[in-house]
Amino acid sequence: MGILSGYRVLDCSIAMAGPFAAQRLGDLGADVVKVEPVTGEWQRHTAAGGARGNKVNVSFLSLNRNKRSLAVDLKDPDGKAVLLELVKTADVFLQNYRPGVAKRLGVDYETLSKINPRLIYVSISGYGEDGPYLNRPGQDLVLQGMSGAMLSAGRDGEPPNAAGQYLVDGITAYTAFEGALAALLHRERTGEGQLVQVNMLDAITTIQMQELSVFTVGHKPQVRSAEPHAHVYIRAPYGAFATSDGFIIVAFPKLANLGQTIGEPSFLTMDDEVDTWTKRDEIFAKTRDRLKTKTTAEWLELLRAADIWCGPVYGYADLVEDEQIKHNGTFVEYEHPTEGHVKTPGFPIRFSKTPSTVERGAPVVGQHSRDVLREAGFDDAAIEQLLSKGAVAENGI
Length: 397
Hints:
Layout: E1 8-11, H1 17-27, E2 31-36, H2 58-63, E3 67-72, H3 77-87, E4 92-95, H4 101-105, H5 109-115, E5 120-125, H6 140-146, H7 167-190, E6 194-199, H8 200-206, H9 209-216, E7 238-242, E8 247-251, H10 255-262, H11 275-278, H12 280-291, H13 296-305, E9 310-312, H14 316-321, H15 323-328, E10 331-336, E11 340-345, H16 369-375, H17 380-389, E12 392-393
Parallel strand pairs: 1-2, 1-4, 2-3, 4-5, 5-6
Antiparallel strand pairs: 3-12, 7-8, 8-9, 10-11
Protein name: Racemase
Keywords: Transferase
GO molecular function: CoA-transferase activity
């Protein structure tokens, strides 16, 4: 029994940010009903990395565990009536339609809150519910580019590099998850539901609280270096450096300490609070040249012994075998009825009395339509009529 056991979430979202937020609610024990078209949600048909599955591709599998699937045609009056019936007893409704679509479908906050005033309605958008960018598509890399963050690292004059994660989607998902939890807490205290709005642009902007404050309050310009320094607002050396057999991270050590450890005498007389900014490229280049002379393991041992912040640069093959990752149980493993053995990232929050568990893997489209309708009060005859009409759909395993 997870900490959110007893709460029901209607997940009408697609792609990554919305489904990921809903999955986190499911991981905490909420009954998440994945409300999707009778042909299946968009992500079922778009295989990230080309990783397809038997009946469920890896993209969908990774974002939709601990959910049940109700396949329903919201453009069919009977199908929409099914959803509106479910809203009566739902706690959270989550959608990331483009602005205006929810209203056209008749599932906007104003409509649903009249049916269930206690409903927490979470709406995720790319840029907000109104404004000049209303109709622009909210896509992760596009928002990374707009965020300003891509010009806080790398070489001056060279194209910026994207993050190695779907960063904006992930941050937006966690923002929506946080908003849903806060609104549920408010409802527990007051009994009232509310609208919760999250947009990707604000999420990726506000996560840069420190960096943007350095710019807006401290008036420090965002200037990249000739060397690939890892962040414009962190003193040198700071970044990833090649070793004789790989790469290593070194993070703003005291220069005298670093100079003694790597054998760079010019660092011994430099000022940590002045030269690390004014001679950033020189310090980076000299550190880079010294670190090429030994292996990653050799440097990690020497630098850690000198109390210098450092670490390896992992690929995924290294990450999954890391001893701390194994100790933490960061990945979970379970058997999926159509995809077989699944190993995937698990739960970032640990509760001593209400631990998260994988109760079910990602469903096939409409797998739980019949069960969900029964629980909502539809009798078998009504369910058969909806199925035969095509207003809802089901699939067995």
